[in-house]
Write a structure and sequence with these properties.
The chain is an alpha/beta fold. It is 41% helix and 25% strand. The strands form 4 sheets. A 6-stranded mixed beta sheet has the order 2-1-3-8-7-6, with helices on both faces. The protein has a 5-stranded mixed beta sheet with strand order 14-13-15-16-17, sandwiched between helices. The radius of gyration is 27 Å and the shape is elongated. Belongs to the CinA family.
Length: 420
């Protein structure tokens, strides 16, 4: 089955909201063995939506529409599709009762336009909304055998409806009882172009499983997907492919999953090694510490730190000699290493990381914008690195934080491995 996704809403076209639903739906449909070939965004306009539907019907087996199922005058999706497929709109019994109960329980008056949310196609199926009032619709045109799926626009409603109501419905189409199993591998320290180059033969020869690279901010992910009738054999194929990938680029790998992050991997590594960390920040102005602090349970391994944006604060809080600091400069290996050592000493942490550099817009101490010195004081000495990150001020700071997280993670892993 081939599908396309139509996002309905003028707010998408004028940039007020991001069409995140298309990303979610594409991933979910792929896992059900349904290929998505087209994404379309169209405004709240009957004629333009009808034109889009006409084109979609000619090229797709499944047309998924999201948005425009609410009670306001610009919510036109349901009515437009109903006219397009010549379907009468009737009340969904369960959705209607839920609507009545909601307003009765909330003791709020219900305006008549709210009833629009309980309407479905006479020959279609209503899909209940766990997080809202607008009922979704599934309908198959028996003449053209085109399938239509109408979902609400708010992601919180759409995702819950898809998981609870749509997936069981889509599984009817899978006559061979096949399933798609995906595994996401996350990498830091290697760009997408180099990763693809290292794996070029695997990508070119892929059949089943498949490999899909995605460039993220400061990192790259690979999604491995296998089509299988049996979960165990599918995972075996994924294991074999992953082993071949790790043999080439495993040194850059840090974790699995769509939502797992480098900071989570770093906190997990610190916890597993049962060691603590402190930080001293200059150009990142607390961003590293805030990033760590956003992870639940980070307090078990993160002792705290210092934000020393000016030379005076470096001298005061980190007890650096002001004359020496003026001599070596703040954007230097000597400075950042001393910052890390002092942070480790003052906090009594096992590790301490320090950042200093030039975020811009102007150069500093004859160092170009993007120059960042990082140092990590460890139980076995101090390591440091100078990096030059491109892009703007905030991008430089974020890139420095990511590099620092990986610096900590790799050092702790290496030390912990040697200690075993």
């Amino acid at each position: 089955m081939n599908a396309e996704i139509i996002a309905v809403g003028t707010e998408i076209l004028i940039g007020q909201i991001v069409n995140s639903n298309a990303t979610y739906l594409s991933e979910q449909l792929a896992q059900q063995g349904i290929n998505v070939y087209y994404h379309t965004a169209v405004g709240d306009n009957v004629k333009r939506l009808t034109d889009v539907l006409t084109t979609a019907k000619q090229r797709s087996d499944l047309i998924v529409l999201c948005g425009g199922l609410g009670p306001t005058p610009d919510d036109l999706t349901k009515q437009t599709v109903a006219e397009f497929v010549h379907q009468e709109l009737v009340y969904d019994t369960q959705g209607y009762q839920r609507l009545m109960d909601y307003f009765a329980n909330s003791k709020r008056p219900m305006t008549e336009n709210n009833l629009l949310q309980a309407l479905v196609f006479k020959d279609g199926e209503g899909i209940q909304n766990p997080n809202g009032l607008a009922v979704g619709i599934y309908y198959e045109d028996k003449v053209s055998h085109t399938h239509y799926l109408l979902l609400p626009g708010p992601p919180r409603e759409l995702k819950a409806m898809f998981a609870q109501g749509v997936i069981p419905l889509l599984q009817r189409f899978n006559d061979e009882n096949e399933q798609f199993i995906s595994r996401v591998l996350r990498f830091y320290g290697i760009g997408e172009s180099r990763l693809v180059t290292e794996l070029s033969d695997l990508i070119e020869q892929q059949t089943n499983p498949t490999i899909a690279p995605y460039a993220k901010t400061n990192e790259v992910t690979l999604r491995l997907t296998v089509k299988t009738k049996d979960e165990a054999s599918g995972n075996h194929l994924l294991d074999e492919l992953e082993a071949r990938i790790m043999a080439r680029v495993g040194s850059y790998f840090y974790g699995y999953g769509d939502d797992y992050s480098l900071v989570e991997a770093t906190v997990d590594t610190l916890k597993q090694a049962q060691v603590t960390l402190a930080a001293a920040e200059s150009l990142t102005t607390g961003l590293f510490q805030a990033t760590l602090g956003a992870i639940p349970g980070a307090s078990a391994v993160f002792k705290g730190g210092f934000v020393t944006y000016s030379p005076a604060m470096k001298a005061s809080l980190l007890q650096l000699d002001a004359d020496w600091l003026a001599e070596v400069g703040t954007v230097s290996q000597a400075c950042v290493e001393m910052m890390a050592q002092k942070a480790k000493q003052i906090t009594q942490a096992d590790y301490a990381i320090a950042f200093s550099g030039v975020a811009g817009p102007d150069s500093l101490e004859n160092q170009p914008v993007g120059t960042v010195w990082l140092a990590l004081a460890t139980p076995n000495g101090t390591i440091s690195s100078c990096q030059v990150f491109p892009h703007g001020r905030n991008e430089i700071r974020q890139a420095a934080v990511m590099y620092g997280l990986n610096m900590v993670r790799q050092a702790v892993l290496a030390d912990h491995s040697r200690a075993k």
